[in-house]
Amino acid sequence: MGATTVIATIRQLWTEEHGQDVAEYAVMLAVILVIVIGTVRLIGGNANNVFSQVQSQMAN
User: Fold this and answer.
1) What is the C-alpha separation between 14 and 25, in angstroms, rounded?
2) Distance (Å, whole) CA 50 – CA 60
3) Residue 3 lies in a domain
4) Cα torsion for 28, 31, 35, 38, to the nearest 10°?
5) C-alpha dihedral over 46, 48, 50, 56, to 10 degrees?
6) How many angstroms from the chain centroid is the CA of residue 52?
7) What is the pLDDT of residues 1-59, one digit of tens each?
8) 26 within a domain of the structure (yes/no)
């Protein structure tokens, strides 16, 4: 009887999709955040260089 309960629980967890959906959304969110943070860091550094160049051109 104990083994039957364990097998039934494993089958239920295998077919249940709510937990899988949450995990998939968490992975997608993590990937999106990494892309956004990388883009902001890249653009931020380049934007700082552009503003510095504009400032030096206006000072001359």
Assistant:
1) 18
2) 16
3) no
4) 150
5) -150
6) 32
7) 567 887 887 777 777 666 667 778 888 999 999 999 988 888 877 887 888 888 888 87
8) yes
